Each structure stands twice: as structure tokens, then as C-alpha cells.
## 1
Amino acid sequence: MPKVIEVDGLVKEYGAVTAVDRIRFSVDEGQVFAFLGPNGAGKTTTVEVLEGLREATKGTVSVLGLDPWTDGRELHRQIGVIPQDFRFFEKITPREAIEYYAALFDRKADAMGLLRQVGLDDKANARFDTLSGGQKQKLGLSLALVNDPKIYFLDEPTTGLDPQARRSIWEVIKTLKAAHRTVFLTTHYLEEAELLADQVAIIHHGRIIAEGTPASIIREHGRPQRLVVEGSPGLPELLRTSLKLPVRVDAGRAVVEIRERKDIVQAMVAIEQSGLPWSGFATESDTLEDVFVSLVGRMDDGVLKSEGSA
């Protein structure tokens, strides 16, 4: 697939502070790309460079074949943006806001259709200053849809939304992907990234510390699958002896590191044959959030000092 975003050796400095440090990544057309990182990691700075709001200190950046800084006017007609903490004219209504945006882009827009798409049609005639934080986010997303852009930059689009409203925004993102549009997503909800993203990049201290599909990042950086068994205090030693696998105790439960699927069957057979009482079992696997917390914590502890995007 063609690359619609290409970043190579991007550096952004503010005086003596390096906010983004030689990062490199690319985004394919039609992908949902999740750009993740804790506060202060360089995430927002990178997004603002891609949108043409900040000039790169070093490196090259291409969005839809354009330099965001020098070709910003042309680029802005081809992208949709919802920023963090979206704000607009206080007295304007959502219907009027969409009509206003459509006029700016010299387009005709179905205001009610767009509001219905994001679940805000019931507030079409409400003033902006009366909307909840979540409803304002929904309006921001509807405005990002007005010019039918090729790339959507969605910065924390579901912040402040209740679970049902979040799911409605997820459906919009899935619809955009089905229409072969590209979505550049930043979010603090790691389960959201794991569910929606084709590719993920994690940035911390200005450097990319992991990149790939959610599954590949979990596989590379996560812990092995675990079997968790509740029962007799003698279970951990039994499993440790009979299976010769790493076993630890967590809140009175035996936690067995699983290397192959047959280990699960062998563990349950060993427990049953032992006659020791047990009350339940489950398997556990790391999520993208587990891996994110581990990677960021290890880097903060100095384990990943030299890792970056190179």
C-alpha cells in the first residue's frame, strides 16, 4: 500500500529541550495508526508537526506527499483534525458549526447526517456552551468529517465519553477504515488502540520504544501466557515439581507460566490426579496496556536508555 505519512529522523527542539528525538515511522493508506505515549512523551509535538502547526528542527516529514510546514495550505484541505479538548464559538449550534465549516471548504454538507453519524443529532440546535465535554468531542469529530479528508488526525477523540458514546465513535472509525480512509489516532485508552489499530507506535522521552501491530508488540514485549489456579496451598509446589515450569504464588493462587498449549492440559491432569482441592482456573495473557506500562516503566528505570526508532 502507498505510504500517506512518512517520518524520517524527525527532531523537534525547544531551546535546550529535545521533545522529539530522531523518530522514524510510516503509515499506510487505509490504516488506523495509533500513536501512544504518556504525557510529555513527545506525542502532541509530533502530531502538530504532521499537521503543519510546528516546524521540524531536523529530519523529513511527508503527509500525502506534501511537506506539512511549507505546503500547509494545500494539506489542510485534505486532512481532518480533532484536537485535544476541542473548543469552538460558544453561541454556535452543532448544525451551524457544520454549515460554517462546509462554507470554509466550499462544500455542501449534510449537517444532520453528520451529526447522526456521531450520535449528536439530538443536540443539533443546542448552543456549544451548553454541551457536555463528551458532546463537544462528538461535534469536533463531525467537523473533521465535513471535507471528506484522506487522513483524519483524531487526538483523544473519546475522552470524556461514556462507554456507549465511546463505542459509537469506534464505529465511526471502523466506517472510515472500511472507506479506505487513514486514521492517525492518539489515545490514553490502550484497549481502544488494541481494538482499532492496525499499527501502533509507542513514544516515550521523545523516542519510539516499540512499533508494530498490537499483537506483535504484545508478543515481543509481553509476558508468556499464564494459567491461574485457585485451590490448595500445596498446588504451587505440585505444579512446580510435576511440570518443571515457572510457578509463583499470587494472592493465594498458583500462577503457572505456559510455554505450550499442552502445558495447560498437563497442569490440570496433574492437579486432578493429586487429589488436592481446587475451585477454579483461568488463563491470562498480557494486553497492550500491560505492555505499555511495562515498557514505559522500564525506560523510566533506565533499562531502555539507548532504544529508539533507529
## 2
Amino acid sequence: MKSPKEMSLEKKLLGLLDSKSEAHKLAVALIADEQIQDIQDYANNVSIKRLGFNDHGPVHMRQVALNSIVMLDLLRQAGIRTCLEAEEQGSYDDSACAILLGSFLHDIGMSIGRQDHELYSSLMARPIIERLLEALEISNKRKAVISCMSTECIVGHMATRRIHSIEAGLILIADGCDMTKGRSRIPISMNTAPQSGDIHKFSAASIEGVDISKGKDHPIRISVKMDSELGLFQIEEVLLPKISMSPSKEYVEVVAKIKDKDERRYL
């Protein structure tokens, strides 16, 4: 059974998409797909219980989808075209479809393990992507383009491999934006011995919220609220490296607000 958080994110995501678009139809299919849900659930089990990492399951992948689509819409509002649009290889809707597929499937490789999980995710995702695209009433060329773009989105989300599209760049940033205390709640509650990497879950626990909105100087503003300076680790060691590797970095500004202190601007 899905959690209230999953259902809330799904509702917000569908509300951002044109109900008549292929992207909306695809989002509905992704949300309802039992195979994807089962793999996401198991990936989360491996991530949290076996490896001691934070959430890499259905909530995280839905949050990344929501973050990505919010940023994609902000770019459209600013008159910035996606790579598929600029290169005349597809439409805004095609870019949205690729981003949705990439977001929902980018961490399913965690069901195997952490190392190279982005590559495992891409291998596991291809038959699922082909199956879901086959149900859409679009040309074979559009299916091929969306499939390739979504694969780039998956492979590039760890900032370990160079990517070249705005679309993949948005998922890279969106993934880094999911760093609130809710993502680390379960790992922290588990009584485990101290180990390397604990800083990630404890720093995430200090993040109260991440807001993505229209920027003052850039199309996208990422505002991170935290209750202590420990949360700066998440910005400086997780989010900023991903932004620096993203082809979408020129469109983003980042600010941090620590309780009772002045706002700190990074980008």
C-alpha cells in the first residue's frame, strides 16, 4: 500500500501536467505500474536496511519527478527551450516524458547495490521504458528520442558522468534537492553502529525544507531552510557539485537560510 507522502507527491505532480498531454498520460501509467512500485520498494529496502543509506525508494523518486517538472515549467515560463526543442528533435511534452521516466527509474539500480547503480538503473529501465512508451500514441521516432533522453537522465544523475542536455541536467539538480529531514528519518531511527557516511543522514536531518520557485536573477531559485549549520554540508557537498556538473546550472540560483541567521547565497 502506498504511503500518504507518495500519494501527495503524485497529486502535486499530476496537477503540474496538462491533462491532455502525453506526459500526463505517462505519469498516470508510471504511478499505477506495479512492477515499478515493487522495484522501487525493494531498492529502498536495500538502500536503508542493507546498506545504511537514506531513502532511495518510491517517495524519493516521486520527489525527484516533482522537482524536475517544477524546474522544467519555470524554464518554459522564462522562454528557455529544452534541448529536444532547440535541436528540433522533439517537443516540450517529449522532454517532460523523458524527465518523468528518468525520475521514476533513476534509482531502481539501488536494488542491486550502490556502486554503479546508475548504470544498473539504465539497464533495468530500458524494457520498462519501451513498454510504457509503446502505450503512447506517438511516432516511433518520438519513442526512440524519449527513450534515449530518459536513459541520459538516469545515467547522469550521480554527477560522475558528463551529460549534455538541459533535461538530464534538471534531474541531476532535482536529485540533489531531495535532502530534507524526512529522507533520513528511517536511517536515523535505526539503532546502528557509527559508520562512514553518517554525516549525510545527520546533515539531512537538519534540513527543514527545500523550496523551488522563480528566481530573482535566474529562472530557478532553490531555497534551503535548515535548523543548524550542519545542513550546509548537504548544500556544499551534495547539491552544489551536482549543479556544477549540470548543463542547466546557468539557470539556477541557490540560497540557504539558517534559523535566526541571515540568508546565505551560493549561486
## 3
Amino acid sequence: MIGNTEKQEFRAQVSAWMSENKPADPGFLLPQSFMEVGSEQQLEFLREWQHKVWSAGYLGIAWPRAYGGQGLDPVFQSIADQEMRRHGVPICFNVIGLGWAGPLINDIGSEADKSRYLKGILSGEDIWCQGFSEPDHGSDLVSVQTRAERDGDSYRVNGTKIWTTLGNFARYMILLARTDPAAPRKYDGLSFFLAPMQSEGIETRPIRKLTGEYGFTETFFTDAQIPASCRMGEEGEGWRIAMRTLMYERAAEAGAAGGLAFVRVVVDDLVDSLRERQRDGAPVLEDPLVRDALVQRIIEEKAILLGERRARIEALASDYPGSLALTHKLRFTESTRRLRQLAVALLGADGGLYVDDPGVPVGGFWQRAYLNSFAATIGGGTSQVQANIIAEQVLGLPR
């Protein structure tokens, strides 16, 4: 059991380091999440920051020392993450490695896999992306059509993946591909690979978003040769491994290396943005309807926070085991979207301005945040898919 004094001392240490090392404004627009890293300039800034955080010992704290971590209790990573958020430091951009691929490799990878991949994930040297969704299937992963055919000591891969975050910068991809199209059950024919992105026959094309930013790519495989040693598990086990990976992505499983994946805003941030704002000659914060809407967002925000705490106390989460963790992704991403939507609405006509427009409030932060919030409600399974999963697997409702 970690004592309160030890936790407080560590928090003070992290806080002091963040205060001293928080980067100055670089003079260009930084991504609000790992899904908006669109330029080499942004990438190098964030790579340098992540390396600095890791070198200081505040990233991968609970991962084994042998693979670049600290081997400490996960509570210390939680404290470090809280202090990063409180100090408003930049994100740790390599989220697919830190939060999904890394925990998976830590849990079920071979010693060779751990030695090969984990340290590079933490340092930011090796960027990871995800190859699950396809243009014609979206969240329907069981219908994946990208083929991986055994060819001696390698697999020949053909197909297309989409919404590949950081794909154009990545060194590795967690790839779900079909190795047995004749399998009687579709999910029995899938296999899982830790695929090198520099292989000949792999091409990425950046996708420009509504915001004008990039971050997503479409990835094309044309007779790409992937070493058979990159397969994780046996052929046909891809569905099981992919589902385990999604549990990390949806925060239903522990093991992430930590760091900030996105700029997290709360109701207090919105209130601060509205303090000087007027509507019909009166402060907008005095409007009873506005105050009611803000209170609703506060209630929702507090409920999510308390739910996170409750999920860690077995006696308080035994009625539907795992349900709080399984529902977290849906509750959190939709709450985030609603808060940002409210912010834009309360800006009135100014909500129609954008980042580069003269007179735009708060530099267009809320407009950009709102448009970018949809990526999180789609990635990792759309909100509609998440609702179905909860209905069937938590509540036991019929399909």
C-alpha cells in the first residue's frame, strides 16, 4: 500500500518539474489531440516533449524497468497524468503505442516483442498506428477484407485501411487482416500483426478534415511483404487479440503508459471564457437558461469522474462487473462533445468564426475543439456501436 505522504511528495516533485519544464508557446498551432498531428513541425515538437517527459521518469512509470519503464505502482502514473493536465502541458502524441499496442505487448507479447518495441514507444522514437477500419466496413471489424496470404517466411498483404491516425509518420501498425477467407465463422479467419510500415508496397495518403487539419490517413497495401514473425498469436486468433486491444482503447483495461492524449477541457474552462461575454446588454452567465445548461454539464462531468473512481473499488462495481469501464468511452466522448457544442452555441454569432478570422474569441479554441470532438465519438467504435455493445453485453438486451 502506497502511503499518502509518499504520494504527496511525488505529486510535489512532478508539479515542480512541470512548472520548470513546460514548453513555451512554439509560435504555431499545436494539436488538441493525437488525432490532429498533421505536420513535421508539430511532430518534432511533440516527439521532443514526449522524450523529455519519459527521460524525467513520468511516462511508462508502471511498465517494467527492463523495457524503459520505472516498474512502480500505477498510482504514480495517475498522479503524473493529473499534474500534466493541471499544468496544461502538451500532449504525449504516441497514443496508439502508449495506450493500445504497448499494453497489449506488455500483456501477451513475447520477451523478444517487449525488448524490440516497448522502449521505442515510450521515447517517441517509434510511432504506432492502427489498421482496423476499412472504407467499406467502418466499425464492422468482423467483415475485414484486407488479405494476408502466407508466402514462405512472410505474408503478402493486399487491401485498404482508413482513419489511420499518424499513419504517414508511423513505423509500426497494429494490423487486423484476413488469413483464411474460407473460415466458417468470419472472425475465425482473422490474424493480428505488428506490421512494419516501411515495407515495400505500403502507401499512406493524408486525409484533410473539415477543420483544415490532418492527422488521419488512408493506407494502401499492394503485395506488401510482412514478416511472419510479426504475427501476434496464431493464425485465426486475430479477432480475440483485436477485441483485447479495443478494451485498452476504450479504457476498459489498465496498462497504458500514461501522458495526455488530448487537451482536456472542463466546465470551469468554459465559464472562464464566458466571464466577459454579454448578451442583450447583460452578462451571459446571468442568463438562467445558460446557468441551467452549465449545471447540467457540471453534473455530467462530476458523474464521469466519480464513475472512474467507483470502477476502481470492487465492492461498488460488483452489480455489473466491468460495466463502468466498458461504458466509459461512450460517456466521456459524448460528454466532451456536448460541452464543446454548448461553448460554440454560447458564443452566439461569433461561434461562426474560426481560428484565423479577425476577432475570433479565444483564438477559435472552442470552434476547433468542437469540430475535432467528433473524431473521438467515431474512433474505437462509433457511439452507436458502443451503445449496442453496452445494451447487449452489460444490460443483456436482445440483439
